[in-house]
Amino acid sequence: MAKLVYLLLTFISILSMTTLLLVPLPAAAAAATRQSCHVGVGGEAARGKQHRGRRRQVEGMFVFGSSVVDNGNNNFLRGSGVRADYLPYGVDFPLGPSGRFSNGRNVVDALGELLRLPGLVPPFADPRTRGRAALRGVNFASGGSGILDHTGQLAGEVVSLRRQIANFEAVTLPDLRAQLRGAPATATTASDRKVTKGQHQQDSFHECYLSKCLFVIGTGGNDYLLNYFNPRKNGTDGGPPLPEFTRSLITKLSDHLQRLYALGARKFVVFSIQPTGCTPVVRAFLNITGAACIEPVNNAVALFNSELRRLVDGARPRMPAARFAYVDSYKIIKDMLDHPAKHGVRETGRACCEMSSSSSGVLCEKQGPICRDRTEYVFFDGLHPTDAVNARIARKGYGSRSPDHAYPINVKKLAML
């Protein structure tokens, strides 16, 4: 009988060990991390993860850049001459004219939908974007701004990329920490209990929230359009050669990305500059008719895009824990311009809206007429894409397997990391 009991106990012991071996250790560790994170942020972020029955893929998005991603910050700048808070902007947007430079969504809105965020990312300048409203992310972008601090000053008041990041650091970060200062993961050992409560909260904030957010960058086009190709107005006639100017931009942008990394950013989505030489305002300014693009302008932004992609490849030594998704807006839009019928596009050269002479052909005339079918147009005004084009850029950046659209991984894979 004793021998039978011994054999039975041995069998149970072996079975228990086998069961443990069958549990993948990385999965078990991931489960432990998820449990820790849920407690670490006090459950606040976890409660907002359900959106119409679907789990959102990131905690939030923090957006920096120019008018291609601005969703209303310039509305709050009294001295800004770059605003889209009037019709026909927003004619196809549920909120109407909101400050987005489009008939509907901008590319960040469309990307947020694909990521299943529970709502629109609010603009930083709106006083209501505080407290819980900031948990799904904040948009700091400012139309007319650039990588260089003085880019866009001719258009009135803008918020430079440097100031946008400073706003994130000085205002939004402390606000988020205050919202997510729930009890940290339970300490299980004496050494764990010696760690200060503040350190636990800091680790929890970065590991369980900030590292799971996307930091979206869409800037650089104005540095060429309003700066390099407009040197006299900026008092820089006889400026540096194009390669030197571009290297300077990339260096400054790299510094800004490293600053965000130091503040806790880990997942970056960077958009290339669109084919600016094909935009209605550039073509009209240079008196070009027909479907031809202005190649010197396109060549300049293509050089920047190439250097930006190299920046993504070479970022690891300076930002070892960072991961990137480079979205090539240039190629995505250029494909639509070169093969319009394939994409259901009819008009590739003209803006959908009537242009305002006071904005040098960039912005729509207030209350002016617009085209009937916005889905057939690439550009809504003299510079910015329509809702349909923004949606296509977002879809390609989010899910395309082609490195010509998203590199080295797409946004969906980045969100899963």
Q: Could you describe the 3D structure shown?
A:
Residues 1-35, 39-53 and 183-196 have low confidence and may be disordered. The longest helix is centred in the first third of the chain and has 21 residues, at 2-22. α2 (25-40) crosses α7 (197-208), α4 crosses α13 (387-399) and α9 packs parallel to α11. A hairpin with a 2-residue loop joins β1 (50-51) and β2 (54-55). It is built from 14 helices and 10 strands. The chain has helices at 2-22, 25-40, 44-47, 107-114, 161-179, 190-194, 197-208, 221-228, 242-262, 280-285, 295-313, 329-338, 387-399, 411-416; strands at 50-51, 54-55, 61-65, 137-139, 214-218, 267-271, 323-327, 347-351, 377-379, 406-407. The protein is an alpha/beta fold and 417 residues long. Helix content is 40%, strand content 9%. A 6-stranded mixed β-sheet has the order 4-3-5-6-7-10. A two-stranded antiparallel ribbon has the order 1-2. A two-stranded parallel ribbon has the order 8-9.
Report the radius of gyration as a whole number of Å.
Answer: 25 Å
Give the overall form: globular
Number of helical stretches of at least 4 residues: 14
Give average pLDDT, whole number: 85
Q: How far is the first residue's CA from the last residue's CA?
A: 55 Å
Helix content: 40-55%
Measured by DSSP, the beta-strand proportion falls in 5-15%
What kind of assembly state do the chains in view correspond to? single chain
Q: Which regions are unreliable across 5 or more consecutive residues at pLDDT < 50? A: 1-35, 39-53, 183-196
Widest beta sheet: strand line-up: 4-3-5-6-7-10
The biggest sheet, with number of strands, parallel, antiparallel or mixed sense and barrel status, is: 6 strands, mixed
GO biological process, one term: lipid catabolic process
Pfam families: Lipase_GDSL
Protein name: GDSL esterase/lipase
Family: Belongs to the 'GDSL' lipolytic enzyme family.
